[in-house]
Amino acid sequence: MIFLLQVFSINTKQNSFLYLFVIFALLCSIIFGIVKLIKNHLEKEKNELSNNPDLPTNSRTLKIVAKILDLTYDELKFTKEFCSEYNVTNLPMKIKDEKFIDDLFKKIYEKLNKSSSEENEIKKSILFSIRQKIEQQKNKKNSSLITNSTLITVNQQIQFITEDNNQYPSVVIANTQDWFTVQTPKNIFNDELTFSPLQKITFCFETENNIAYILQSRVLSSGKEHCTQIAHTKNIQALHRRNQKRIHFTPDCIFSAVQIQTSGSENNTKIEYKALEKKHTGTLSDISSEGCSILCNLDIRDGQYINVKTKIDGKNEDEFIGKILKTESVNSDNTFKLHIKFIKISRKIRNKIFTKVYEYQSF
Question: Any bridge partners for residue 170, and if so which?
Fold first, then answer.
């Protein structure tokens, strides 16, 4: 009897272990099945986003775009509105298509531009903010610095800066181990510029990741087949980097120093920027939504505030306050480049700059 009880007890323990093993195996199978289903669903979703241009734009795809671009509530709301109005499908795929985005945003801008109301200026600002974030997302792919002219790519657009402060466009057409070749720039009369052997030259350029550079080197030869050969150099300086798209832009400008005045209480301080009477002339070199560069003959200290007047559309005068982040000499004839950050600028003027940068309107 005792023996039978012992045998029954052993069998019971063995069965318990067997039951636990079976339950554990079933749980593992269920978990594995769930993980596989989730993985298949995510893979299917990824394939749809990558390969199906007609995928409807809904709350799910909008959330994906909002996460990719880090959109604000107002930007997401506006995105939802224009996707519905213009029947935009598969927005996560479309934001990678720069031509599609610019064609679409140009239509939206043209509609908003029919009225000069403050509400439409706000919507323009939101539109350009979204466009800027798309640009920044694209630029995240490449952020390395160029430290040697051997790294300059063929078809890179460049701007020659002459001793009299004029700028002439050109392009890199070849880059070998021994030198790089550019298309000989032309003046406003369509005549090619002449360079002497070993002549010192300066030019600037900006790469796709929005880093601007200034380079100094010497000419090896010029004139043959409309080309100029330039010696390789490490004399390359990366200028102030902006996260915003910047374009070459050279209107004349007038600027003056600014006196900062404060008024009001400690908790409600009002800041006024008063432009001084003494004016100076210069030429813009480039512009973005956050700042610009000015070429002039003044070596102004970093941190100085200035008042700038120029004509962004070539017709109407625009005025803004900026802070000089950096002043640098660009060649030997006392020409300096002022890198300026906008401090006080109206929404309307900033929208005009965005319009110029993204070519949404011909001024």
Answer: 158
| Residue 233 contacts residue 217 (beta carbons within 8 Å) | yes
The predicted model scores a pTM of 0.64
Convert the pLDDT of each residue in 68-116 to its tens digit: 998 999 999 999 999 999 999 999 999 989 899 999 999 999 999 998 8
In tens, the pLDDT along 6-40 reads: 444 555 555 666 667 677 777 777 777 777 666 55
Which residues are CB-contacts of 145 (< 8 A; sequence separation ≥ 6)? 211, 238
Measuring CA to CA, which residue among 99, 86, 80 is closest to residue 358? Answer: 99
The Cα-based distances of 271 to 87, 290, 324, 344 in angstroms read 46, 20, 18, 11
**Across the chain, how many H-helices and E-strands are there?**
7, 15
Rounded Cα gap, residues 324 and 93, in angstroms: 39
Reported as half-sphere exposure (CB side, CA atoms, 13 A), residue 327 has a value of 16
